[in-house]
Design goal:
CATH superfamily: Collagenase (Catalytic Domain)
Helix content: 25-40%
Number of domains: 1
Number of strands: 9
Strand content: 15-25%
Length: about 190
């Protein structure tokens, strides 16, 4: 599956680390076979911050990312290190528009182990790559999958991220191929 001069824009927000951006970009490019491009850092939108929760709401961030999406980008992946939430959940590792243009992930919770102990950098980077691939798949209309070993399984906890390989099951691979054809990417 290859694209026709379209890219996946990787948009750092706030203090996204260079190592994370490299892994996210490489993981997306390897799995989706679409070239990635890392854009200059932008601040996390002020309107996303909820002082009562001390977290950032994903929805204003996704809206911001849609506005930033370059014309030659098929999708935009925001990468940040702030704590994210959606109104119905306490926190999220990332959020995407199902079938949409934008997604965002955060390393905030990926850096912590049991009891808030820090985890090795290699594990943080592995988690970031997996979350990025998972969230971007939602923009290609893939939903959560029940197949063992599929990257599209739900991630309710860090342990489930660590267990998953960074690959799709045969069903999700077929759905992704169908979406590429619909979008004219093959």
């Amino acid at each position: 599956m290859t694209s026709k001069k379209k890219i996946i824009a990787v948009q750092p927000l706030g203090s996204a680390r260079e190592a994370v951006l490299k892994v996210v970009s490489a993981s997306l490019q390897e799995v989706y076979q679409i070239q990635t491009e890392v854009f200059p850092n932008q601040p996390v939108p002020d309107e996303a911050y909820n002082p009562h929760r001390g977290q950032h709401n994903c929805y204003p961030i996704l809206k911001f990312l849609r506005r930033l999406k370059p014309e030659h980008a098929i999708k935009t992946m925001g990468v940040t290190d702030v704590d994210l939430f959606i109104p119905i959940l306490t926190y999220v590792f990332g959020e995407a528009e199902l079938g949409g243009q934008a997604t965002v992930i955060s390393t905030w919770r990926l850096t912590r182990g049991a009891g808030e102990d820090p985890v090795p950098e290699e594990k943080v980077l592995d988690r970031a790559g997996k979350i990025a691939v998972h969230e971007l798949a939602h923009t290609f209309r893939l939903q959560h999958c029940r197949e063992d070993g599929c990257i599209m399984g739900s991630f309710p906890a860090l342990g489930t991220i660590d267990e998953k390989p960074i690959e799709f099951c045969r069903y999700c691979e077929t759905f992704l191929k169908d979406e590429y054809e619909r979008l004219g990417l093959v």
